[in-house]
Amino acid sequence: AEKHSLQEAQAQHSKLRQAVEAKKQSLQAAKDEDAELRRQSATERLKLEAAKKQHEDENRQLVLLSKKIAAERQALEAAEKAVQLLQQKAESLNLQARELRLRLKQENLERYQKRENLLLKSEKERLEGLKRDVKAADERIRQEVKESEERKDKARVQMEEAEQRRNKALQEMEKINKAVQEMETTNGHLQKAKQQASRQLQEEARRLVDARRQLEEVERRLVDARREAINAKPQAQFEESHFSSCCWYWEEDQARINAHAAKDVLDGKWVAYADSVSSELERQHALWEVGKVGAEFEIDITDRIESTSSGQKAHMQETGSVFWINFETKHQINKSSKYQRSMLRIQTAASMHPPHTWGPMKSIKSMHDAERVLLHAADAERQQVVAAISKTFKPGLRIVRVERVQNRALWQAYTTQRHSVYQREKSLDGSASLPLERSWLFHGTDERTVPHIIAQGFNRSFSHRTAYGKGMYFARDSSYSSSAEFSTPNGKGEQHMFLCRVVVGRFCLGISSMVAPKVRARDGLNYIRYDSTVDNMENPAIFVVYNDSAAYPEYLVTFN
User: Fold this and answer.
1) Omega into 440 within 30° of 0, i.e. cis?
2) CA–CA distance, 37 with 44 (Å, rounded to integer)
3) Cα(106)–Cα(112) distance, rounded to whole angstroms?
């Protein structure tokens, strides 16, 4: 029983030990769990402390932000006050500026009135001077008429001088008319002065014309003699005296331009040929224009070089002085080296002679009459006109006839205007190398108006077009002028169009309200205006001129 009791005690002891071990394990687990909880608590405590610090930082930032907002609110209030002050100052400045503009406007009006008064006074003085000049010219012309039989050559020179003076007088009259038109808007009394000045100038011009007509007999004899020479020797119409109005130049390299005399250099790169060479070039050019010779010809300028002090070429003398000239491309080519240079042909003076294509005028009684010369299909001159038209002619149109217009009075008025423009450009910038003249521009009209234009020229007062100014309109393309809108068909369906030489000069962009081109420059009391207006400055297709003498109707084309 004791053994059994001992075994039971041992068993119970074993169970107790097991229970103690289990308790130990449970206690160890509790300790581990407690340690984990402590670690977690410490972590949470750290997180809480960090959150507290973050909260404190946010509170501090919030306080700072509140202070900043308060400061910005104060700054905004100050800015609003400043803006109000600035607005008040701006209103004050606007009032001051308005008062200043009013004062300046008043001062400008006073200055403009004074300037216009000075201009009027100057124009009156110029008018008096012109009257004196015209009277003096009239007296000189009368004296030379008495001696015309003994001094025909001198009488002709004096007639040309009188024509130039008359042209200057007419130009001055036009300037006065334009100046008076501009001043009419500010001073109504100028109209009377303008009318009086115009009447006086017209009277003096008529007197000058009467004196010029007295010289017509001498001029007619000279013309008849020249016509007889032309009829006897066809080539005589190309004599050098007829081509003295053009000068020829060749392009030199910039590095050698200083080797030539300054008087022979144009625009810093063009060198003038000697007079004899220039005359030969012009004569051959005229023959080429009428189809008598080809576009190329050979010329030898040996011992005919005047631009260098040695009379020789400035460079490469070993290549010789024989050249091929091409009028189509405007180039000279050295026959030996084949070196090519550009050429330039410009108008240097107004030739009063008719074009070399004109024939004898048998049906006229005075220089103021006109003649229409029919060109035949085989004529090179007609073929040249047809080629110019055909470049832009509308398909389906057929040329019926081509007539040359020969009107000596209109031609002299045109060349005088052309000479005036060239001389003005040379006086302004030292050269007149730009294309101041266009050949040809087209002008369409109706059959009823054709004889008026041939006899009296163009008259802008009859022009009703105002798209680019109130003047005479000319087109670059025949397709434009040949439309039925401008070339009105007659009862047979025939239309009429002129090929014109036009002095376009310097042009500006036109607007419909223009009665004259804009002022280009001012020379003392003189206003220098542009010569014409266009539809497009980069590529003009329409030209409007405001001087009736600035266009000559060279050919009349009838088509259907």
Assistant:
1) yes
2) 10
3) 10
Please, what is the angle between helix 152-183 and helix 2-146, to 10°? Answer: 130
Q: Which residue is associated with the tokens 């009006």? A: 109
Nearest to 467 by CA among 531, 534, 518, 529: 534
If one counts every other C-beta atom within 10 angstroms of the C-beta of residue 184, the result is 13
* One-letter amino acid of 378: A
Q: How far is CA 468 from CA 108, 474, 542, in A?
A: 31, 11, 9
- Pick from 375, 373, 382: which is nearest to 290 by CA? 382
In the chain, the amino acid numbered 30 is A
What are the tokens at 292? 């008598």
Asked if 536 and 510 touch (Cβ cutoff 8 Å), the reply is: no
Q: How far apart are CA 83 and CA 160, in angstroms?
A: 76
Handedness of CA 316, 318, 322, 323 (dihedral sign): negative
Contact by Cβ (8 Å): 446, 409 = no
Residue 473 CB partners (closer than 8 Å, separation 6+): 443, 463, 465, 542, 543, 544
Closest by CA position to 474, among listed 553, 401, 529, 403: 553
Q: Using an 8 Å Cβ cutoff, are 505 and 414 in contact?
A: no
Tens of pLDDT, residue by residue over 53-86, are 988 988 899 999 989 999 988 999 998 898 889 9
Pairing type for strands 399-407 and 370-375 reads antiparallel
List, for residues 468-519, the tens digit of each pLDDT value.
999 999 999 999 999 989 999 999 999 999 999 999 999 999 998 888 899 8
Q: Is residue 260 within 8 Å of 315, Cβ to Cβ?
A: no
DSSP state of 483: S
Beta bridge partners of 474: 543
Pairing, β 532-534 against β 507-509 = parallel
* pLDDT tens digit sequence for 445-462: 999 999 999 998 998 878
Label residue 25 exposed, middle or buried (CB < 10 Å: 0-12, 13-18, 19+). exposed
Q: How far apart are CA 502 and CA 508, in angstroms?
A: 16
Strands 495-503 and 551-559, sheet pairing: antiparallel
The runs of H, that is alpha helices, within 512-553 are none
Distance of alpha carbon 494 from alpha carbon 487, whole angstroms: 9
- Coarse DSSP helix, strand, coil percentages of the chain, rounded to the nearest 5 percent: 55, 20, 30
Q: How far apart are CA 399 and CA 386, in angstroms?
A: 8
Bridge-partner residues for 342, per DSSP? 331
What average pLDDT does the chain have? 81
Contacts 24+ apart (CB under 8 A), 185-191: 186/112, 186/113, 186/116, 187/113, 187/116, 187/120, 190/116, 190/120
Phi, psi of 337 (to 5 degrees): -90, -15
In the block, residue with structure tokens 């798209």: 467
Rg (C-alpha) for the chain, rounded Å, is 48
